[in-house]
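Entry for the shared binder. Reason: the reviewer on the internal report wants the predicted structure included alongside the sequence.
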Amino acid sequence: MEVNGSVLQDLLNRMTILCDHFAESDSEAATVPYKLTQLLDIAVAHGASALNINVGSAPTLRINNMLSVVEGSPLSDADCRKLLKPVLTSYLRSQLVKEGHAETCIAGGGSGFKVHLFLERSHICASFHRLRTDIPKLETLGLSGSLVENILEQPAGLVLLTGLPRSGKINTLAALVSHINATRLARIVTLENPIQFWRYNQLSTILQREVGVDVPSFSTGIQQAIDQDADVLGISEIPDRETATFAIRAATNNKLVIAVLDATSPDRGLERILSSFDEQERAKMAPIFANALRIVLHQTLVNRSDGRGVIPAFEILVNNDEIHEELKNGRTDKLTWIMQEHNMQTLGKSLSRLVSAGLVDKEEALHYLSDPSELQIDKDSLANLGDYDSEPVTDIDTNDTPLMSWL
């Protein structure tokens, strides 16, 4: 195999740089008076979202979107090497050689951090981004109760979370996984891109794997999860046919699979899965898919009436005999009608509950409904809104997988 000369030279240059950095000399001793663990403790104590370490300046914290300098002298090259040595595994060093940057996740200060290592003027630097731990509860989302909780107790099956991009699906995935973590003895493997929440083991053991860092792809991660003795899989997206195939097969083979999928409605989410297969594959996979599916939770964010952020409205499709029959034959066009006939929770019903409770204005709710008659306001139904608590959802991020805060 012929190797491009410039690529080889660039690789050799990086290897030389790293070898020089990792071989500390007596003439360049580190003088930094603190350790990385202490800096991470400081970051958490001050509520910082990021910690930056680079040559030529003291460490900085980002607090409330403003930079704050940690007291001390500017860091030397040796100081940076000393601080980052606990993070730099042989694998990450090899990644720095190959790519000029590397990423990992570490624990510190009672929290978790996403670490981005990189080279700057031949110096090794890093940015530590704090991962969130404020995972919402099912009660906050309005998903507590026997239906969803009973499905999360099942040993196998497919739970689909659908919705538009930036509709908070990752938060809902985190809440469902967290509920299992707190209530079941299980091995949970999450496949995330990127990791957004730092999770702690409770009754369950959670293995968080980041696609592109810990595992090359979602489909590979699902296959490996079988060998990792997983009981539950949490998948932050289904990007392709291969991932859909392995997720469906895992759900029919004693794994509870919770997966996120961009879609405009529950039935279109199911159609998107089926349409990822060609005609011959669709005929083969449709019955397997029908057997695997347990529930579809379709999420829409609507503005709260008090102006304090947004709140989710959920459409809930439960796989009953009629839906199973339609899916088994590769059909999705009648699913919305079946939902209505069997009194499943449509968007109109969900919004009606929110308006009746005073959490959402009528005008706001009507904005999401093509048929105004779907909005049935019943003030007497307030007592039946026990699933929702009073905490708002605010601070929507502009990324495809948003971060939302419950105040």
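Summary line for the report: The CA atoms of residues 2 and 8 lie 11 Å apart.
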